[in-house]
Amino acid sequence: MVEILAYRSWVKLLVLCHFISLVAISTVEARIRHYRWEVKYEYKSPDCFKKLAITINGETPGPKILAQQGDTIVVELKNSLITENVAIHWHGIRQIGTPWSDGTEGVTQCPIFPGDTFIYKFVVDRAGSYLYHAHYGIQREAGLYGSITVSVPNGESEPFAYDYDRSIILNDWFHKSTYEQAAGLSSIPFVWVGEPQSLLINGRGRFNCSLLATPSLEAGVCNATNPECSPYVLTVIPGKTYRLRIGSLTSLSALSFQIEGHNMTVVEADGHYVEPFQTKNLYIYSGETYSVLITANQDPSRNYWVTTNVVSRKPATPTGLAILNYYPKYFKKSPPTLPTTDPLWNDTAPRLAQSLAVKAHKSFIHSPPLTSDKVIVLLNTQNKIDGYYRWSLNNVSFSLPHTPYLIALKENLNLNHVFDQTPPPENYDFKNYDIYAVAENVNATSSNGIYRLKFNTTVDIILQNANTMTVNNSETHPWHLHGHDFWVLGYGTGKFDMMKDVGKYNLVNPIMKNTVPVHPYGWTALRFRADNPGVWAFHCHLESHFYMGMGVVFEAGVEKVGKLPSSVMGCGETKGFHRP
Predict the structure, then answer these.
(1) For residue range 271-307, what is the model confidence (pLDDT) as tens digits?
(2) What is the C-alpha separation between 134 and 136, in angstroms, rounded?
(3) pLDDT over 90 at 7, yes or no
(4) Which of 14, 252, 379, 483 is least enclosed by beta carbons within 10 angstroms?
(5) φ and ψ of 515, to 5 deg
(6) How far apart are CA 232 and CA 320, in angstroms?
(7) Where are the extended beta strands (E) located within 9-71?
(8) DSSP secondary structure string for all residues of 408-454
(9) What is the value of pTM for the model shown?
(10) Judging by DSSP bridges, how do beta strands 145-151 and 65-68 pair with one another?
C-alpha cells in the first residue's frame, strides 16, 4: 500500500513537472516585448537638406520591432510634439481581439494629445514582414515610420533558406512641411504637393544642394558632406544568401527596386509565402512588403549600386541610391558604373505582369471561399466638392468623424450625432460611365457613412480605376485593408465586366495580402472574410489621396468586441469620458 501511494505521488509529481515545463516553454515562446517611445520633432538631414522631422527616440526611420509569432508587443508612446496629436498604425498586424490598438485616428481611437502617453498592446499572430507608421493627418510624410519583423515559432521552418536577414524601407521625401502640404490640398486655388525631392533607402538619400544655392538660403541648410545623408551600405559576404525584407512607405510614389548585377527571388509578400519567381526589377507600392533572396555571387572586388526609381508618375525625382558592398573590400566606395534609371516609368505591362505573378506558395495555399455573399464595386475618381479638389469612390468622398466609429458603435452613442447613417453606394453606373475620359460632371458629395457587414460573411471588392480630371491620365492607387488579409483574385485592364471577368478569378492559388495596387485604367478584385470584430479602414495608401477622401470603412461584429480601454477616448462625443 505504501508502495502504491508512493508510486501515485511520483506520477503526480511527474505530471506537475511536465505541466510546469509546458508553461515555461509557452512563456519562452510567447514573450512580452516592451518598447518605450517618445515622439517629437527634431531637425534631420536624411537627403542632406535640413528640415523638421518627426522622430521616435530621436530616430527616423524609427526603431525596428523584432518579435516572434505569438509575442505580445507593448509600446508606451509619449507624444512630445507639443502642438500636434499623433497616432500610430501597425501595418499588417490584424489586431485580433484588440481593434482599439489598430492606431487609426477617427476609426479606432481618439488621437494621442500633446503631452499624453498612450499604451498600444497587441499580439503579432503571424510571422512575416510588416510596417508601422503615423496615421494622423499626413504625418507619415514627416518621418514617423519603421519596420516590424516577426519570426516563425521555435521548431518551425520556412520554405526557403538563407544565411542572413536584412530590412530595407523605401520612402519618398518632401522638403515642404506637412502643414504646408495639407494647407495646399485644402485650398482654393488647389496647390498640389508636387513630386518628392528625394527617394530614401533606409532613411538616406541625396539631394543636389546646388539647386538651392541662393543668397537667401540659410548657411548649412543643405550640406552634401553631412554624414546623415551618406548612402546606406548593405555589406554582404561572398557566397552567402541574404533575405531582404523590402517595405515601401512612400507618400506618393510607386517604385522599382534593383540591385546591380544580382537577381532577386521573391519569396514573401505581406506576411504570406509566395511561389518563388525571379526578377531584376521589383515593383513595390506604398504599404507593400516583399521578401527577396539574393546571393552574393558577383565579382567581390567591387561594389554595386542598389537603386530605386519612380514609376507610374513622370519622374521629377532623382534615383534613390545605396551601395551593395562585398566584405571586406571598400566599404563606402562608389561602384565604377553609372546607376540605372530603368525601368520606363510609363510602361504598365511589366508592373501588371508582376502583380499577376505573385501567387501563394504551393505548400501554403489558403483556399478562398468559392463564392461571396456581397460584392462592392468602388470606382476611383478625382472630383470637386464646392470647388475643392477631392478623391471619391462611386462619387462619394470620405471624411473622418470627430468621434471614432469603434467608440461610437461599441458605447452605443447617439449615432446620428456621430456619423452619417446612410451607407456609401456599393456600385456605380457601369453601363454609361466612360473610364477613359474626364467625367462630364466632376462634382461629388462628401460623407462619413460606413459599410456595415454581416459578421463572418464573404465580401468581394472590385477596385475600378478611371481617368482623373486631367485628360489621358489615370494613376496607380495602392489600397490597404486594416484588420484583415484578403485574397487577390485578379487584375485586369479596362472596365471590369461582371459577366466575363468573374470567370477569370484565380480561386486555385491566390496570394493573400493586405495591400494591393489598382493599375491605371485597370481593375483589381479582392475577397475577404469579415471575421475580425471591429471597425476597419480600407483606403488608398498615398497620403494626399486618403487625406482628400479616397477611403471607406467597414464594420463587422462590433458587438463581439471586448470592453474598450478608456485611453482610446477623449475626443468628439467622448470628451467627458475618463481618459487616464
Answers:
(1) 999 999 999 999 999 999 999 999 999 999 999 999 9
(2) 6
(3) no
(4) 14
(5) -140, 140
(6) 10
(7) 32-44, 51-56, 65-68
(8) HHHTT--GGGTS-SSPPPS---TTT--TTS--S--B-EEE---EEPP
(9) 0.93
(10) parallel
All three cell numbers of 512, joined, read 493573400
pLDDT at 9 over 60: no
Provide long-range contacts, Cβ within 8 A and 24+ apart, for 367-371.
Answer: 367/507, 368/487, 368/489, 368/507, 368/510, 368/527, 369/458, 369/527, 369/529, 370/507, 371/458
* Range 23-31, long-range pairs (CB < 8 A, 24+ positions): 28/154, 29/68, 29/70, 29/153, 29/154, 30/68, 30/70, 30/71, 30/72, 31/67, 31/68, 31/71, 31/72
Model confidence at 311, in pLDDT bands (50, 70, 90)?
very high
570: left (phi over 0), alpha (psi -120 to 50) or beta: left
Tell me, what's the pLDDT at 415?
77
Average pLDDT, the chain: 93
CA–CA–CA angle 184, 189, 194 (5° rounding):
45
Cell readout for 182 is 495639407
- Rounded distance between C-alpha atoms, residue 192 and residue 142, angstroms: 17
pLDDT of residue 130: 98
| Each residue's pLDDT tens digit, 63-93 | 999 999 999 999 999 999 999 999 999 999 9
Q: What span, in angstroms and rounded, lies between the C-alpha atoms of 195 and 251?
A: 10
Spatial CB neighbours of 64, under 8 Å, sequence gap ≥ 6: 146, 147, 148, 149, 167
Q: What DSSP state is assigned to residue 60?
A: S
The one-letter amino acid at 452: R
